[in-house]
Specification:
2 helices; 122 residues; alpha+beta; single chain; 5-stranded antiparallel β-sheet
Length: 122
């Protein structure tokens, strides 16, 4: 069964919300920026893998330009004790749906590229 967690990175004022599968991999990831929680990313691992399998690196880059990416390591490999809270599925789903709507309407060329946070501080 999936779990849902939230973490805040004060360096860049980003709130992360993650859906985590039983295997520890993030299956969906949302990034909300600033005090108004502007959606910056709403990525799904299955969609990233589909893009990779369908069109290779160019397709993955196009996907990540619009939706961002998911963390590149499972949660159990992140720094121990990374700050996070468990959240409800409903809270995650609300943020996911709103973020996807915003990102689907946005000009993908206007978004800046960002690195995918994977819980490491080094």
């Amino acid at each position: 069964m999936a779990s849902w967690i939230r973490s805040y990175w004060d360096v860049e004022d980003i709130t992360f919300l993650w859906e985590v599968g039983d295997d520890g991999w993030v299956t969906r990831s949302v990034e909300l920026v600033g005090p108004d929680h502007r959606p910056q990313a709403a990525a799904m691992l299955a969609e990233e893998l589909h893009a990779r399998d369908r069109g290779g690196l160019p397709a993955v880059q196009a996907y990540e330009t619009r939706y961002g990416g998911t963390p590149e390591a499972p949660v159990h490999e992140w720094d121990t004790g990374f700050p996070h809270d468990e959240i409800s599925r409903e809270l995650f789903e609300e943020a996911w749906e709103q973020s996807r709507r915003v990102l689907e309407q946005a000009d993908p060329g206007g978004r800046h590229r960002r690195s995918v946070w994977c819980g490491r501080t080094d």
